[in-house]
Design goal:
The complex is a heterodimer. By secondary structure, chain A is an alpha/beta fold. Chain A is built from 10 helices and 11 strands. The chains are: A alpha/beta, B alpha/beta.
Amino acid sequence: MSGRQAIRRAIDWGELAPLHIRARQVADGVYAGAHRSNRRGAGVEFGGYREYVPGDDLRWLDRRSLLRHDRLVVRQFETETDRVLCLLVDASASMGYRGKGAPGAKIAFAAVIAAALARVALTGGDPVSLTFLGGGERAPHVPRSAGRDQFERVVAALESVEVGGDARVDGSMVDRALQGLARATRRGAIVVFLSDLIDLPDDSAERIAAIASTGRVLAVTQTLDPAEVEFPFTGTVRLRALEGGAVVETDAETTRERYLAALAALTGSWQEATVRRGGRFTRATTTDDPVRVVRTILEAVR
Amino acid sequence: MTFLSTLALAVALLVVAPYVAHRLRRRRAEEQLFPPARLVQPAPPQSRRRSRIEDRALLATRAAAVLLLALLGATPFVRCSRLSLQRSGGASVAMAIVVDDSMSMGAAAGDRSRFVRARDGARELLASAREGDAVAVVLAGAPARVALAATTDLGAARDAIDALAASDRATDLDGAVTLARGLVSSLPQVDRRIVVLSDLADGHPDAPPLGEGSAVPVWVALPELRVAAVDCGVMRADRNGARVRVGVACGPGAVATGREVVVEDAEGKTLGRAAAPAGVTGETTVLLPSEDAAPVRARLLGSDAVASDDVAPVLPEMSRGAIAVVADAADETVATGGAPIVEQALSALKLDVDMRPIPAFPDRAEDLAGDVGVLLDDPPGLTPEQRHALGAFLDGGGVVLVALGPHAAAAPLGASLEPVLGHGVVWGGTKATGGDPASAVGALAEPARSLADLGASRRVTLDPEDASATEVLVKWTDGAPLVARRAIGRGEAWLVTLPFSVDESDLALRPAFLALLDAWVGAARARAAPKRTDVGTPWRFPGAHVVDAVGPKGPLAASRDEGVPRLVPPLVGLYRITVDGKAEARVAAPVARELDLRPRAAAAGTGGEGMGERRAAVDISGQVALALLALVAAEIALRAWSRRKVEAV
């Protein structure tokens, strides 16, 4: 790896460094002490109904509802068991972007959120695992575990990762991540996916949303840079994508509206795929308050 | 221009380089990373259009920089032609600028008139003056006059020069140089000079060289003005019935042969035309279609050096003026016979006026039209009609001479001498036999010695009230007025308390009698100015209070000379004058010698050596370099502004 590439792959932490302290601050702001580990799925106490989606365990299909209302409905139960928090963080090249005025790169912001979530979960006694999407061949993987040391391992892995990989070129990147995730999760686990969702393959939304239909709770948080949300360019600009090799020369004023519409369509497709499978979808920019973002995710997976 | 300057200016062709660079540069905008680039739609056409608009200022700046760079390279070889002063040891200079505003300066000098070039030259000289320099401005149009007395206020000098206007006057170069010398000779500056900005065409090409023997150095600048040219002009145009006589004159070397003279009305419609007279001077007659036609001006067609003298207003033909004499031939005829003695005396004076004996003073003022004076020798009073006519004549500026004698004292009932005298006079004996030479004033002061013994035994005595209203020119030895005058209206009445008859006294036989007549006729002619005079000759209006005039170029302000209103026509043409509400028209005609455009010689040493430069080098490389620096700064600012804009994105 050349020096220039190393610099490019290194995470631009900006104002979000150091991760260790920032994650603690965020977690302290979120954590209220009364954490109830509850999940809906296999268990003893009835937890309500929901619409059947393909992939649901047929054992929980409510036959009475089917006979009475001709609708496919599955029963849900609350459990008192521990809940595994599986963090899936996008470390592809596009996550290394930091626009002007942003506090840090997207991967840095995602790392803060992930570390804070890990600290909240570990404080409640729940085990945590960490998997990266992209990040190169040597992207670290943190197996599921609980305890105080796990937080240090998660933070170390987040600090050591380098952005890299082109999901639009490397079609197996998503497969590798999902395989790693499948090994680390089991029914009832909470999966939090932090990504910009920009350069992922077209079928990624369906494949990742399917996680929610296998007894897991999925929360997808789209993490964007303010420049990606606002498109603040003026005049003639020549834009180069970090993945896929796209290069576009355009007039910013006339293209802004169409870009924002395309971004909204992309976000909408992910949101629709996720929610349809019972998952939760949230969106954050790197200028948002991390405490609020973490709290939103926790509210979504509760 | 040398090869090097041409080469330097050729660098200006590189002005296309920035344009080419811009064309090459604008093909690509600056590349920026943007992860969701695949969501952005390309829009190249509009992008290029915007690129052109944003870069235009930068392109213009760079192009201007290249042009200035080329000019800077050529500047040592690019010089401005202008007049400037030279100083000896850097001392202050006293300079009198003589600007010729005569008619000949209306000829062309390149793309402008000689006068405009001279005025510009005066401005250039002033631009090279410094604080402490004294400047005076003298005009050489006749009569020479001071436009600005010597001053160190250069702003006032600039204003004075800006206010100079061309005229059609004759040229008085010698007078102007004399005036200029007087203005600067007494100034404290050691370095004094007279700068003459003239074509030197004063009508005396054989006169001594200008500036010869002058105590103050003379610099005759602008040699390009001294170019010989030819000119013809219309000197007069008089109408008599349907005939208009047009006098045409040409300067040496010019003839009006082949040219035409036309007479136009107020709308410019040609009423008649005739061939111009052949030769240098001549007269042609233009026949009008009718006597009722209203000709306004005569024009000499064709072109020559000066255009302003090719047009002249048409005036009714008139005599040169006459003296009406009312004398009793029976009383005043000398023993040898012939005309009355006063008529013989007027003839002996050979005055440039006609004499018109009339039997009695007319009853109508119109009958005195054309008369500049009326002489009444012992009139037996005046009837009311005659008094009215005399009053109108005097109000119009006429002058009368009344010799009072026994007939005036024995005026019949109803007759009087009003408005000359308000009371009757007395004819009686006197012990004083003659005038007192010591009391004589004015033109009679010298010849009054011949009035010491007139052999008169009787005389006229004026009423004290009338006597107190007169200005006594000569007194009797007993103090009574012998010759007196008084102003009445715009005119003047002269009184003599003896008749001109040799039977009553020897007055008519004395030399002082001729001097008296000469002085009186002179006064009459001065008040009855001719309708056409040379341009620049003052018109005086004695006795008038309000004088308004409109000349060829608009209103003309009257000045006062010893309380007498005075007008000086600066341009050739028609002047409509209102004198105390009475309108009249006068014409200023060109001076014949001004048609001679041959320049007179200038004395040796008047070329300006040591005093000034005709082609002073004005190196503007410093200003060009400053402008270049400013452009470079502007480009840096523009680039910084553009970069900040990109970084903001």
